[in-house]
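Hi support team,

I'm opening this ticket because the web form for multi-chain structure prediction keeps timing out on my end. I have pasted the exact lines I submitted so you can reproduce it. The total is 451 residues across two entries, so I didn't expect it to be a heavy job. Is there a limit I'm missing, or should I split the entries? Thanks in advance, R.K.
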Amino acid sequence: MPTVSFTSALQRFLPTPSAQVAGTRVADALAAVFSSQPKLRGYVLDDQGALRRHVAVYVNGRPVSDRVALTDAIGPHDEIFVFQALSGG
Amino acid sequence: MADRLHVGTRKGLFELAHRKGAWDVVDAHFLGDPVSAVLPDADATLYAALDLGHFGAKLWRRDRAGAWSERAVPTFPPKPDDAGDDPHPWSLGKIWALEPGGVAGRLWVGTMPGGLFRSDDGGASWSLNDALWRMPERRQWMGVAGGEQPGINSVLVDPRDPADIRVGVSSAGMWASTDTGASWRLINRGMYAEYMPPERREDPIAQDVHRLARCAAHPEIVWCQHHNGVFRSEDAGANWRETTAIRPSKFGFAVAAHPSDPDTAWFVPAIKDERRVPVDGKLVVARTRDGGRSFEVLSKGLPQRHAYDLVWRHALAVDASGERLALGSTSGGLWISEDGGDSWTMPDARLPPIAVVRFAET
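Hello R.K., no limit was hit. The queue was backed up. Here is the completed structure from your submission:
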């Protein structure tokens, strides 16, 4: 199953352990994580389900191409990493 | 008088206490996180709204025992297909106004991009006020602060009637409901907008209401710091008269209304628009005690040389006595007055840029 991991910057706000989840698209994998940690959804996605402007999702070290519906395909051995894009000061 | 002050800044929420005749920072919460609104509620709980740069707006509550827990944030419903041309995003930008609803557990939240939300369970759940959000006129609301998002900066709940709600919008005038938000009317008449084309100058929806403040003991008295002037209403915001005596300038963001004297209010004037700094580099407070016919310029204890402190909408507060005030600036300056603004002192602190100051009465 694909693995989803989160930046340690989120640990300040809520627990975000790495998880192995089922799914063939990035959206499925994230939804599976959010089902066990509902508050996390709002940290990663906006109200319409798109990636927050300053959050990045990489699959095997490359940014996803669909930041709105997260339809990028994933395979069983893929590593999904959610982290903060640079912003602020 | 209120002996506790909460200061929301770009880098955390600072709590000050008045002890042995002096104010001191006694705690720092959410250090490093931007705080956009704070509310010490009557039941001794404290709410703090965060505006996290990466992870969005959040709401936390401290219970009476002192334990913080994350509450729900307001969220917008899925954007319907027929709203494709809506100029404003259907997603929470930030919590800008946070007010008690006059009923146990009720809170109102004004947001960017202009949604008004209500909770009846202390922030455990929220519902968007559909009547205001789905009004066709809402699409005419103009964005502020260099962005595309309008914002509800003020929510006034009538202390005599929790069904009577008035909101101030940057930039779309003042809206009123007398049925707990089931229906809304644009009510403000008598304001003018210097920045608009001549034919739209007096259009109520074109008015950039920076901030509204209401006299608690005389709720029909409402003051407005507008983008190009100071206005006063004697009928809860329906009709407005400009108070041209304001000095040293008529631009500003903040206003505080005396809790019991309908003729007293405080403002923090600045050079308008293009510059947005104090006039002549002197930070001053303008106070009227005669309903706006005249103003005193108060400067004792405030920096009078090379002071470029701007005071945002929510960064001027008065406590329930009307004697104790707090003033916080974009340069992190914090000043407190014990004498209605006659003189000011600065606590021993150099704070991050201040968005909001608020006294706790309990």
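A quick check on our side: The domain at 4-76+90-360 of chain B is CATH 2.130.10.10 (Methylamine Dehydrogenase; Chain H). Let us know if the file doesn't open in your viewer.
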